[in-house]
Amino acid sequence: MRSMQYDVSTPEEYLTALEDDWRRRTLMQIRHLIQTAGPQLREGIEYKMLCYSDTVGSIFHLNAQKNYVSLYVGNIQKIDAEGTLLQGLSLGKGCIRFKAKDEVDGTQIARFIEQAINLRAAGEDIEC
Fold it and tell me: Which domains does the chain have, with CATH numbers?
């Protein structure tokens, strides 16, 4: 499946380009969780999607696809070795997919995001 790409250069343009549907609501919820857990992270655009980075580089990428909202984060296994924080979600090696049926509030994604930020701050390698 091809990803949806937005021809934008700022987060504000990205958010304006989103359709007002479940994908926008889901993306905004996850964006809020990232901004709450990592207020020191810079929000920008990279690879035509939202990007959150620290002084080392990108930690998260967030994008609304056609059938899901995806959160990209290095290597999931390095952040949640037991696999308990992301149970019930559709996962790739470094991608967490939220589909229309997935309620962000019903998951432990906030804890996962905090864990990724804490590991990165401690100098741990969470990359692919």
Answer: 11-121 (3.90.1150.200)
